[in-house]
């Protein structure tokens, strides 16, 4: 009610109920509202709005006009919390930027906050805001608990920061994904529909995945004589009916979360690891693309899409196929020999497709750090780079994704990536020039980026410069409209090949089968794009907590780092604990990407802040 009342006054609407008039009188007495004749206005000394808290700052959202939003420091919140309706007093600021400090919570719902104890105060774990309270006396330093946001009373005791198994709870709680542990939906029994499917079980399909994979979304088979590539994808839409409880929960999750400790699947394990997964030696329902390849023009000449039934004749690891493509077949049986006989020529074909693709797209040298844990502590890091087997599967999946997007038409669910604007491109050129890379703006964006990569390679800075290029690009997202994919160089692109772990692919399958668009497609695209970004942050938060534990156990030890942020003195480790991020206390303007030896001097498990000094 109060929010609507203040909104009326801001919009100069003065028709009030008797109850509203009584409330207004109270605020007139407090000098918050000023009455001029029959008109009312909010005193310019004050601002009333909705509080939105981010990691390092907060926003006081104007009730009417977003352009009037005010940025607040976290120490100016005065006990207010997210979504509270608050009264803030403007503070004089000689630098002319509007500043304010919250003086009162006008309206706020009772909620719980995740906090830890430090020096007799509660601190919020997400923003590290101090909440002074007498209720801390019975707790030890670094105890973690849930408290209410009004009286700061305990709701639930969680544990202590020194217990490594607490990290998963913290990350899942802070990013609102804890429900995955408790919210379950029963999987219904399914009727067989083999008679309505094309039987491909005699074709020697195979899957190629990481060693640890339990969910096998995609399988391939190549008919070398007819240049026919079959890409078979788990037929999840058959098992997960639109609008069912199972579907609603999958939409809420939007994707599988892969933590170093465990996997939290989008679908129940009976589906993700069994009925939907293209397991070796098992008959499985699949949604299949049959692609006729034109090897001269390096394009898909024609494609068919149909429901099928396949058998995965062999599940391979990336490492095993890398050896095969390198001519090291190891021991093999007849089935494996049949598969190797088509994988080897298929790899050569996909290499040509890849070379053609990169004339419009980009080859960024990226590697993924896989954290390996033991007893919830960091044991080692494996660096996974794109190898021949990865690229083979990637090109096959790209072809299927492109064809799927073409069959949808102008409206559907697309994976889009916008081209960087001139300002972002100019800054990129300036940044690489500082590194000594002699680059300049070319006739178009593609020429400029490939030119920068070529010049960086001459100075052996390709990996570092690729990092800067990626940072300069906007993030890919989902859209109901086809706006193309800049990074991949495609005019039309979507996600079709991973419906076990991505809701976007499940929606696309349904669209292709029914030829109908969901009524709330734009909302679906927004939600799954937001979920994707949130889950990325959750995983990074969890991994940083594991790095922090390693750092705390290794205070006084030296590691090798490279500077990655000259303004904030940030560096990242590139040897013992690859990917560990820290702040250099005695930083004195060392060059971006320059390499140094540092000694770890402190670490906070709550904030994950690791501090080191140059040695």
TrEMBL record:
It is an enzyme of class 3 (hydrolase). Residues 197-518 form the RNB domain. One of its GO terms (cellular component) is cytosol. The keyword Endoplasmic reticulum does not apply. SUPFAM superfamilies: Nucleic acid-binding proteins. Its EC number is 3.1.-.-. InterPro entries: NA-bd_OB-fold (IPR012340), RNase_II/R (IPR001900), RNase_II/R_CS (IPR022966), RNR_OB2 (IPR057293), RNR_Ribonuclease (IPR050180). The keyword Hydrolase applies. Pfam families: OB_RNR_2nd, RNB. One of its GO terms (molecular function) is RNA nuclease activity. Keywords: Exonuclease, Hydrolase, Nuclease. GO terms for biological process: mRNA catabolic process. This is Ribonuclease R. It comes from Aliarcobacter cibarius. The lineage of its organism: Bacteria, Pseudomonadati, Campylobacterota, Epsilonproteobacteria, Campylobacterales.
């Amino acid at each position: 009610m109060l929010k609507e009342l203040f909104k009326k006054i801001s919009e100069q609407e003065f028709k009030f109920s008797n109850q509203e008039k009584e409330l207004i009188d109270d605020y007139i007495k407090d000098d918050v509202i000023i009455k001029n004749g029959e008109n009312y206005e909010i005193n310019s000394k004050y601002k009333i709005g909705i509080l939105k808290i981010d990691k390092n700052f907060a926003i006081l959202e104007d009730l009417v006009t977003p352009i009037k939003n005010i940025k607040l420091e976290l120490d100016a919140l005065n006990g207010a919390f997210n979504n509270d309706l608050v009264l803030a007093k403007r503070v004089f600021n000689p630098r002319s930027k509007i500043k304010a400090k919250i003086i009162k919570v006008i309206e706020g719902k009772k909620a719980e906050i995740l906090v830890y104890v430090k020096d007799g105060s509660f601190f919020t774990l997400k923003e590290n805001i101090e909440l002074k309270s007498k209720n801390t006396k019975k707790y030890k330093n670094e105890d973690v608990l849930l408290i209410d946001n009004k009286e700061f009373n305990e709701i639930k005791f969680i544990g202590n920061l020194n217990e490594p198994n607490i990290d998963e709870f913290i990350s899942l709680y802070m990013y609102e994904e804890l429900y995955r542990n408790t919210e379950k939906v029963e999987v219904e029994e399914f009727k067989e529909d083999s008679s309505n499917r094309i039987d491909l079980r005699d074709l020697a399909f195979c899957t190629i995945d990481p060693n640890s994979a339990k969910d096998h979304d995609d399988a391939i088979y190549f008919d070398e004589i007819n240049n026919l590539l079959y890409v078979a994808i788990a037929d999840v839409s058959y098992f997960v009916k639109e609008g069912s409880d199972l579907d609603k929960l999958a939409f809420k999750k939007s994707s599988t979360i892969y933590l170093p400790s465990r996997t939290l699947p989008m679908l129940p394990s009976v589906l993700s690891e069994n009925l939907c997964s293209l397991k070796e030696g098992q008959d499985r329902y699949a949604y299949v693309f049959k692609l006729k390849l034109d090897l001269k023009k390096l394009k898909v000449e024609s494609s068919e899409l149909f429901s099928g039934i396949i058998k995965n004749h062999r599940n391979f690891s990336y490492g095993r196929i890398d050896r095969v493509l390198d001519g090291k077949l190891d021991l093999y049986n007849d089935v494996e020999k049949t598969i190797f006989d088509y994988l080897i020529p298929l790899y050569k074909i996909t290499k040509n497709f890849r070379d053609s693709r990169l004339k419009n797209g980009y080859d960024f040298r990226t590697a993924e750090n896989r954290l390996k844990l033991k007893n919830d502590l960091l044991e080692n890091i494996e660096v996974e780079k794109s190898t021949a087997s990865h690229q083979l599967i990637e090109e096959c999946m790209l072809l299927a994704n492109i064809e799927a997007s073409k069959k949808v038409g102008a409206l559907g669910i697309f994976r889009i990536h916008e081209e960087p604007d001139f300002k972002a491109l100019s800054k990129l050129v300036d940044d690489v020039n500082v590194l000594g890379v002699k680059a300049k703006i070319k006739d178009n964006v593609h020429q400029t980026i490939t030119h920068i990569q070529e010049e960086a390679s001459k100075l052996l800075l390709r990996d570092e410069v690729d990092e800067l290029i990626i940072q300069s690009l906007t993030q890919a997202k989902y859209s109901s409209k086809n706006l193309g994919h800049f990074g991949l160089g495609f005019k039309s692109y979507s996600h079709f090949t991973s419906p076990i772990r991505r809701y976007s692919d499940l929606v696309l399958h349904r669209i292709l089968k029914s030829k109908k668009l969901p009524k709330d497609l734009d909302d679906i695209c927004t939600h799954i794009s937001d979920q994707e970004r949130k889950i990325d942050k959750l995983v990074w938060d969890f991994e940083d907590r594991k790095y922090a534990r390693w750092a705390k156990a290794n205070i006084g030890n030296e590691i090798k780092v490279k500077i990655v942020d000259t303004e904030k003195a940030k560096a990242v480790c590139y040897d013992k604990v690859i990917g560990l991020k820290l702040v250099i206390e005695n930083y004195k303007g060392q060059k971006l990407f320059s390499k140094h030896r540092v000694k770890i001097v402190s670490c906070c498990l709550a904030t994950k802040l690791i501090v080191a000094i140059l040695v």
